[in-house]
Amino acid sequence: MGRKLGVVGIIAAVVLAVIVLLATLAPWIAPYDPDYPDLFAALSGPSADHLLGADALGRDLFTRLLYGARITLLGPTLVILIATVVGTLLALIASWNRGAVDTVISWILDVLFSVPGIVFALIAVAIFGPDLMTVVIGLSIGYIPYVARVVRGAALRERGMPYVQAAWLQGQSGVGISLRQILPNVQPIVVAQAVSSLGFAVIDLAAVSFLGLGVQPPTADLGLMVKSGFDSVLRGQPLEAISAGLAIVLIVWSITVIGDRLASNTRSIR
């Protein structure tokens, strides 16, 4: 794995692992309740009691950063998981059946591909109201074609391989061949595409939260922290916006680097 990622990729993996570990252990290492207000500490700077200071309501920024990272990682992960499962299944169905089935699925994917994922999230919010799962489902729909189109191309190449023809002559069903033969061979491409898309999902989810249409206060979320941090900047406390923004940058950078390395290795194998 180290050779696949390279030096920069390993650094990115370590950064991401540290962030995931801190977010996972937030209930045990965070010094305060993320939603507990202390008006006496409002907009205070870094101190022994508050490592990064406090926000306008006196909530500890370090604590909210840890809890905010959990949602910032969990939401996009759900988006990519749903999109990858649905997109891969659609790709396998289209690549095996071809003809009218492939044409219809490809047309649907083209339509979805023409609309940015964040637009689907906004439509979902307009229909069902602002909520994390609403945004996740909306973004998932938008990310399905990114996975399906790549996997379909790879599956079509595999479908013409001798081992697939041999399995078909042995009497195996199309479903069995797709799941037991083709899917394992395109799995590296599926993983690389999923990781590459994850960084974009982090940005989209943070953008929706920044607009106030995703995670709702007082829940800690990095996108919300950047938004609320703007007002704090005017009051002389820039650390909320800076720390949350930097955390988003580090998460997206590390995921993007890892995804690029995996994609490069996948292309070299092919």
Question: What is the secondary structure topology, with strand pairs?
Answer:
Layout lengths: L1 H23 L1 H4 L31 H37 L1 H15 L3 H12 L3 H28 L2 H8 L4 H37 L11 H13 L4 H31 L1
Describe this structure in words.
- By secondary structure, this protein is mostly helical.
- Helices cover 77% and strands 0% of the residues.
- It has one domain (71-268): MetI-like (MetI-like fold, Orthogonal Bundle).
- Helix 5 runs antiparallel to helix 6 (132-159) and helix 9 (222-234) packs antiparallel against helix 10.
- The longest helix is centred in the N-terminal third of the chain and has 37 residues, at 61-97.
- Pfam families: BPD_transp_1, OppC_N.
- Residues 69-259 form the ABC transmembrane type-1 domain.
CATH topology: MetI-like fold
Which structural class should the secondary elements be placed in?
A: mainly alpha
Q: Specify Rg, calculated over alpha carbons.
A: 22 Å
CATH class: Mainly Alpha
pLDDT under 50 segments (min length 5)? Answer: none
The total count of strands amounts to: 0
Helix content: over 70%
In what range is the share of β-strand residues? Answer: under 5%
CATH architecture: Orthogonal Bundle
* The CATH fourth-level homologous superfamily: MetI-like
